[in-house]
Design brief:
The complex is a heterodimer. Chain A is α+β, with helices and mostly antiparallel strands. Chain A is built from 1 helix and 9 strands, in the order αβββββββββ. In chain A, strands 1, 3, 5, 6, 8 and 9 form a 6-stranded mixed beta sheet that branches. Chain A has a 3-stranded antiparallel beta sheet with strand order 2-4-7, with no helix packed on it. In chain A, 32% of the residues are buried. By secondary structure, chain B is mainly β. Chain B has one domain: Immunoglobulins (Immunoglobulin-like, Sandwich). Helix content of chain B is 0%, strand content 55%. The radius of gyration of chain B is 16 Å and the shape is elongated. The N and C termini of chain B lie far apart (36 Å). Classes of the chains: A alpha+beta, B mainly beta. At the A-B interface, β6 and β7 of A face β3, β5 and β6 of B.
Chain lengths: 158, 107
């Protein structure tokens, strides 16, 4: 009486197993690719589709971060900061926090020096991008990879 | 009133680039974190920071959840005339605070 039962259970178990691995792969792969795409989308939204060139901008951040809750960053842009040639704005984006935006700064010739420092949170090891908008309408960027050992958002308050 | 810590020179020569560093006591609750009851804590962040030099906007910042608690911002400005610099912070739940510092500019 119990013999006919096991045969149908085996294929079903295999089916579930196959489904589970497929699901796991989907879970692992999707956030990574979506995040990388998100970063590009966020930068494009900021530049309104204008091309972004690498250079002029220096995003200064420790490559190995001990505490993701407080990560000092400094963005410096090579610019004379005159009325004719200055930095209009600087934006910082991240790859894997829950939100792509980190901070946006508005500067002008009155700033005298295009250098801004702040402290940010990083949820995990990821890419950071600083984008600067010049007065002539061009955009320049610097991308940095950061390794975070203690992540923000997970391991309690700073 | 949140506590603030502002570090800036009190005197400068005309045309000199001065650095202003400002911190304000604020939790900067991200809106992505769960509390002890498992519910997501509502977002409570400072959204904007600005600096007005004798009424003219010289620097402003838009902050997001990724900025650390007790947000710190350091920036520069050119000392043009003696006067007042007003630093103001605005955020969620009607948060608004302004602090002013005096700057004496010598020729």
């Amino acid at each position: 009486m119990t013999l006919p039962m096991p045969p149908p259970a085996l294929p079903r178990r295999r089916h579930i197993l196959a489904g589970a691995t497929g699901l796991a792969m989907g879970v692992v792969l999707r956030p990574a690719s979506a995040a990388a795409g998100d970063l590009a989308v966020a930068v494009t939204a900021y530049t309104q589709g204008a091309p972004v060139r690498a250079g002029k901008v220096k995003l200064d951040v420790a490559e190995l971060v001990d505490n993701g809750n407080v990560v000092p960053i400094t963005v410096t842009v090579d610019s004379p900061m005159t009325a004719a040639d200055h930095v209009k704005s600087i934006a910082v984006f991240n790859e894997k926090n829950p939100q792509r935006d980190v901070a946006r700064f508005k500067l002008g010739p009155r700033a005298g020096k295009a250098s801004v420092t702040t402290r940010i949170r990083l949820a995990t090891s990821q890419q950071l991008v600083a984008v600067a908008q010049m007065s002539d309408g061009s955009y320049w960027s610097h991308t940095v990879n950061v390794i975070v050992t203690l992540a923000a958002c997970i391991e309690g308050d700073p | 009133m949140a506590r603030t810590l502002i570090n800036a020179p009190s005197t400068a020569r005309r045309g000199e680039v001065i650095e202003i560093r400002a911190t304000i006591g604020h939790p900067m609750e991200t809106g992505f974190r769960a509390g002890e009851d498992g519910k997501v804590l509502p977002r409570n962040i400072i959204q904007t920071f600005s600096c007005r030099y004798n009424g003219e906007l010289v620097f402003s910042a838009e902050l997001f959840s990724a900025v650390s608690a007790n947000p710190y911002v350091a920036f520069h400005t050119v000392a043009t005339d003696s006067g007042t610099l007003v630093l103001s912070w605005e955020g969620d739940n009607g948060f608004s605070q302004a602090e002013s510092i005096k700057l004496v500019v010598t020729a």
